[in-house]
Amino acid sequence: MAKSQFTNPWFPYLLLAPQMLIIGVFFLWPAAEAIWSSFFLQDPFFGKSTYVGINNYVDAVTGSDYRRTAWFTTIFTVLVAFLSLFLGLMLAVSADRVLRGRSAYKTLLMWVYAIAPPVAGLIGIMLFDQHIGPLVEFAALFGWNMRVGVDYWDTGIAMIVVATWKQIPYCFIFFLSGLQSIPSSVKEAASIDCRSETRRFWTITFPLLAPTTFFLLILNITYAMFETFGTIDLMVKGEPGNNPVTLVYKVYQDGFRGLDVGGSAAQSVILMLLVLVLTVVQFRLIERRVHYS
Amino acid sequence: MATTEMDVPVARAKPALSRRSFGGVKIYDHIVLWIGVFLMMGPLAVAFMTSTFDHVMIHREGMQVGWGGEFLSTYDTVLNQQGGFSGEITGWLMTKNSFILGIGFALGKIVVSMLAAYAIVYFRFPLAGFCFWVIFLTLLLPLEVRILPSYEVVQQLGLLNSYTGLILPLIASATGTFFFRQFFKSVPNELLEAARIDGANAWRFFVDILVPLSRTMMAAIFIIMFVVGWNQYLWPMLMTTEEQYFTLVRGIRNVMQSMIGADIPFYNEALAMAMLAMLPPVVIILIFQRMFIKGLVEQEK
């Protein structure tokens, strides 16, 4: 249905002005500058810059450090995205089924959503601390001498645990509201036709949740790649050294610490392209969904 | 496959809901949820309880479960002691800054994005498509990705160490605009027509009809955006070099840094700080739980 609309030569522009102004100054300008400076080599001390073509990109992508970071980011992102999706779904399914105490469970399970990533990182790094951390003691029970902050993969695993923990409530909230929006007539019909609860879940409930799952998957990927910055910064205690970091952290590290403006900008542009791809995928999925309904 | 089809009538012969109604309780689900609650809340409980102990004790014996009795003195120190390099920053001041950032960000975002969404949904004008795409573009690039150039721009504008510089660049992303666009599209056309007949112009319609209609939506977005704003870390960390502008979440970094190299780090104060930084957003989403979930889930639409 077409929306009735006003026609006015200047009023809509006036309404859009604040948004456009902010986007122009704080978004378009910096983004353009990132793309521009990714083709230059800047001298941090004299402010001179030389055009170097795509050298910054080549240097970034071929650097062994970059590759290691990219590899870690991939593993980190995939694990965090899927683990939080899976655990969130599991909790939501149970919370949807119980009658007693549902709202108490819900409240306690969504609590962590409100915690800032660096706060989660601080609590995490203490739980995994060599001296005082109970989780290190727990790992030691299984003969695993966990050395977070020293061993590359031990630190990585601790980061994955904390980042997943932080994201579970988000998935839980979406899945629970998805489950609750399934009409009870569908649920009843399904329970008459199919006795096995597991099969009923995979053939009826899960397909109905598919759109939510896709949506959450994309959001989880974006979360793991970009929003975990604070968690990672706290968990490497601000000095990555030999510890794993994500690509976004490296953009910051090279740009602000290494003063490699061009290289950092090139990495930014690579990430922008990645987000672009993700968004296109997301939109294709949303379009597909329109056909379902 | 064929055999399972055959099974169905047999299954139907028994009461299909027997497992469900049996006793009315499903032990499995409660166990899963209890484990979930333990894993989600356990770390927070341990962190809180440890923060009530003396730091020497924590250093010697690890994180604690129980009540350490140092609660008042630790939290008093964190809130009132003047810390940092300049010695002028206190926990209270950081809390104030966090509220300024959270509320400023949420209000700014609501105002800016409501106006923009109104223009996009309710007006026909030549550049509408172009504006929509520019706004859409901002969803593609989180601030984290363009952090260095954003910093340079804000520096050139002389906005480092100011609330304006802290808040405005964060508002640049257009999530709010899409929320409101979606909502306005669901408002029935009849309302606009009736308003027109009554002689309302575009501004009157917005102020007298659309804004009151959006009240719940605005509240939901306010809650979400407040939490998002309060929890900002990277941007405040780069932006605010003067300690008087530090937020609680930003202060977490200083706490961590002061712990490095300390003989006996003040674990208790660090955790107390984490608890303080956590408290307001948690309280808000728990109080306005229903509204918060509604607003959050709306994003998917």
Largest sheet of chain B: none
Q: Strand-and-helix sequence of chain A, N→C?
A: HEEHHHHHHHHHHH
As laid out across the biggest beta sheet of chain A, the strand order is 1-2
**What is the molecular shape of chain B?**
globular
Q: Nearest-angstrom radius of gyration of chain A?
A: 24 Å
What fraction of residues of chain B sit in β-strands? Answer: under 5%
Please report the distance between the alpha carbons of the first and last residues of chain B. Answer: 36 Å
Q: Layout of SSEs?
A:
The complex is a heterodimer of chains A (293) and B (301).
Chain A: H1 11-37, E1 40-42, E2 49-51, H2 55-62, H3 64-97, H4 102-110, H5 117-127, H6 134-141, H7 152-180, H8 184-193, H9 197-227, H10 229-235, H11 247-257, H12 261-292
Antiparallel strand pairs in A: 1-2
Helix pairs in contact in A: 1-12, 2-12, 3-7, 3-9, 5-7, 5-10, 7-9, 9-12, 11-12
Chain B: H1 2-13, H2 18-21, H3 27-51, H4 55-61, H5 71-80, H6 91-122, H7 128-138, H8 147-156, H9 163-171, H10 175-185, H11 189-197, H12 202-213, H13 215-230, H14 234-239, H15 248-259, H16 267-287, H17 289-298
Mind explaining what this structure looks like?
The complex is a heterodimer of chains A (293) and B (301). Chain A has helices at 11-37, 55-62, 64-97, 102-110, 117-127, 134-141, 152-180, 184-193, 197-227, 229-235, 247-257, 261-292, and strands spanning 40-42, 49-51. Chain A has 293 residues and is mainly α. Chain A has a two-stranded antiparallel sheet. By secondary structure, chain B is mainly alpha-helical. Helices cover 72% and strands 0% of the residues of chain B. Chain B contains 17 helices and no strands. The two termini of chain B are 36 Å apart. The relative contact order of chain B is 0.13. The chains are: A mainly alpha (293), B mainly alpha (301).
Features:
heterodimer, A: 293 residues, mainly alpha, two-stranded antiparallel ribbon, 2 strands, B: 301 residues, 0% strand
